[in-house]
Amino acid sequence: FSHSDLCLTFGWQTPAFATMLSSTDFASASWELVVRVDHPNEEEQKDVTLRVSGDLHVGGLMLKLVEQINISQDWSDFAFWWEQKHCWLLKTHWTLDKYGVQADAKLLFTPQHKTLRLRLPNVKTVKLRVSFSAVVFKAVSDICKILNIRRSEELSLLKPSGDHFKKKKKKDKTNKEPIIEDILNLEGSPTTSGPPVSPGLYSKTMTPTYDPISGTPASSTMTWFSDSPLTEQNCNILAFSQPPQSPEALADMYQPRSLVDKAKLNSGWLDSSRSLMEQGIQEDEQLLLRFKYYTFFDLNPKYDAVRINQLYEQARWAILLEEIDCTEEEMMIFAALQYHISKLSLSAETQDFTHESEVDEVEAALSNLEVTLEGGKMDNTLEDITDIPQLADNLKLFRPKKLILKAFKQYWFIFKDTSIAYFKNKELEQGEPVEKLNLRGCEVVPDVNVAGRKFGIKLLIPIADGMNEVYLRCDHENQYAQWMAACILASKGKTMADSSYQPEVLNILSFLRMKNRNSASQVASNIEAMDMNPECFVSPRYAKKLKSKQLAARILEAHQNVAQMPLVEAKLRFIQAWQSLPEFGLTYYLVRFKGSKKDDILGVSYNRLIRIDATTGIPITTWRFTNMKQWNVNWEIRQVAIEFDQNVSIAFTCLSADCKIVHEYIGGYIFLSTRSKDQNETLDEDLFHKLTGGQD
């Protein structure tokens, strides 16, 4: 028999014949695909088998599936999740072949919006529906619209470490009654409707949404609440400070942390460029919503009551749990402000907020308040100071590198542009200085004890092989405020001609005045009247150090300086005081620098990177973002490489977190530095992903 005869007898097919058969009889090769349907009204997921071909597009597959399920409902929020590849099939015009979907693919047809529990900075948990298919950057934006928090780019989601909620659970075991968490349910939120997200409380016309003094919703704008789950009552829950925790609860949550421990806390930030589902987040899981980037743009009491309160709460917990270090004197100011805010919040909650606020009253109050985080007029003491191009005065200087006791020596100092020059005396100022210090890129650390009349400035100035440490000592508050403000601006490359110099001076002065100790006679009579436990307002370490009556006296003494402040101003002042701490805004990671034999801590701030000795906590070197030429990630060896001006380059591997997290922090801060007030609320999301993605 010939080959063709055999084919005819036994039905064998030549390749050409097979091709002809598939293209004519079957149209194209078809196969069975099993899709699991995550039906919202039924407990169990159901498998549906469909006959499909590779040229079927995803939208067509959806149509086929819905027709076969034959249940009349809104399927618009549903999409396919590919379990093995860990990705969504969101491009409905793509074919199965283009996605690479074959018969062995496990597809889940599931809603894109799912329930998530979010622990807010004020330790309140909200339950809402969030997109599990949108990238986290977009999901956080939608969450912030529901909660009425502007500038969502400053926040992100943090997956808590395994022991984050453990201590509370231990305590629960001793209680016979289980503790029921008080959850604010916002599941009926605008984001459940799918693609178009309601603006919620966003005021497009920038009508004042809140009373700038008390932070309560202005009744004339209550129409903003009509299409949002955030009613006036819920808004108050988010915009008002929670009652202070008991000292026992604080002690239970507190644990002393080294820099390495703090570095581990930052390993849980989610990747902003990937969705929740892609990062293994489950429905109804609990995540933390936190301010991730410490550059708070355009804080305004008129629109930001919730944002200011949540920021205050994040700062408060950072102080109470000693996630950031402060002196005993500073701790008492933070305690006094907390006590004041708690008292005002309690009295505010008992008031009736349905009264109409006169617009001119609000404006008058705002003009008196004049507080934003750029600084405002705290009092009239220094109102006559104009922008000065230079400072000249006698100050004392000390260098700790010499093996001598801490002896300060007086010199004549001139601060011009971003440099300090000092001379043996004023008469020699036209000659060569003893030394000239360029403060661009330096670390500026306050070294102050108001009670002890000590007004010092510690400067860590970057040099080729590390940091040059210099201490300056001022004689009084006014001198310190002027020189400290000049040093802070110079470290950022700004001069005293900059418009932010004057507010910085006033901000420093107001913080010093809060530290002033008052006469004890008035305080003594008020100790009995203190209706709150003083240990609630300080970290457990300070609560153990001082007796209850001593602590109450110290807090009331500090409270006299802030007793007249309105509620929102007190919160803003707390945030300002937090910002003035040396460690503020530093996020730590454990890294190994290329060529080094030991681990170091990398501190990431809004304008610089700092290499810190992991054992001593002493800064080794600082690199400014302004000097950065480029940065990238070698994904194969998980190494971040950065190039700076003057042929300086560094590379490191991350040990306490994925290198993408650190890379995103650096790119995120550079992205935030591009914001300006004339941009309105719109953000260039593509630019954010370009700067943080690390793929190019």
UniProtKB/TrEMBL annotation:
UniProt entry tagged with the keyword Cytoplasm: no
Keyword Iron-sulfur carried by entry: no
InterPro entries: Band_41_domain, FERM_2, FERM_central, Kindlin/fermitin, Kindlin_2_N, PH-like_dom_sf, PH_domain, PH_Kindlin/fermitin
This protein's UniProt keywords: Cell adhesion, Cell junction, Cell projection
Family annotation (SMART domains): B41, PH
GO BP term, pick one: integrin-mediated signaling pathway
Domain PH: 396-492
Region forming the signal peptide: none
Stored Gene3D superfamilies: Phosphatidylinositol 3-kinase Catalytic Subunit, Chain A, domain 1 (3.10.20.90), Pleckstrin-homology domain (PH domain)/Phosphotyrosine-binding domain (PTB) (2.30.29.30)
Principal place of residence: other
Protein origin, superkingdom: Eukaryota
GO MF annotation: an example: integrin binding
Recorded GO CC terms: cell projection; focal adhesion
Record localization: Cell junction; Cell projection
Family assignment from sequence similarity: Belongs to the kindlin family.
Name under which the protein is recorded: FERM1 protein
Gene: Fermt1
